[in-house]
Known about the structure:
By secondary structure, the protein is an all-alpha fold. Helices cover 72% and strands 1% of the residues. The protein has one domain (6-301): Farnesyl Diphosphate Synthase.
Amino acid sequence: MPERPATAAAFDVHGYMDSMRPRIDAALDAALPLADALPANLHSAMRYSVFAGGKRLRPMLVLAGCGACGAESELAMPAACAVELIHTYSLIHDDLPAFDDEELRRGKPTCHMAYGETVAILAGDALQALAFEKLARATLDGPASWAAASHEMARAAGSQGMCGGQTLDIEAAGQSLDVAALRQLHAYKTGALLTAAVVCGGMVGGADSSATEALRTYGDSLGLAFQVVDDLLDVSGTAAELGKNPGGDEARAQPTFPTLIGVEASRAEAARLRDEAIASLDTFAPDAVAPLCALAEYVVSRSH
Length: 304
């Protein structure tokens, strides 16, 4: 296995995340319509879901990807907001009765439980539209790299990314997939948006083609590691730890890494993917990518 950079081992990832989260939340607060602006029920539902909690991992990857290329991370904040808005919309829709039919998300009632199914659908739709409004504004006001970043984000959210992966996931229920097919499913459903986050940050930060591909490799490996750990947590986690009811994959007969290769092999695979992600950054200055390396460590060691 590749040796992990000493800067990553010494990096205070929890301190980093604690410092970044308020910055991201403030930007999201400014981006969202006021809760009492018409239509108030819709805007309240949007805010409820965005501020229901969450690690803000995806926007942190945007900002860390920008910083890895030597730029001020704040430059990429519109993309950081956009990816979190897209992620939140996907969670609202995932929780609907037509999909996973979840009652809890991040320890709170899901959007459709709190606001009703119709408003939840519209809140998700509006969050996605707002995400691309933010990206469009940055594209109009900024350099050409914003157009490339917007294209990257749109592709990751669509039929060849998150939406396509959700379709494959629905079709896989009760089916016997091999590991290659499961990897492809999750590369779309989970990995595409995580990869887009770090790549978009790099693009805005001035990444050349070589750096962009290195960040893409990092994101691809990290995205799959994230999903392997999610599968493991669904087996071993508690409702208090996860903020939602565990065992959902088994109840829906969804193929997972633990069911295909076993729990221990899944843990080893998550660790291998983490090391692969970190190794992909070896051409960057170690201090510049310390946040990305530490976030990869965090993804595999997390308990929720």
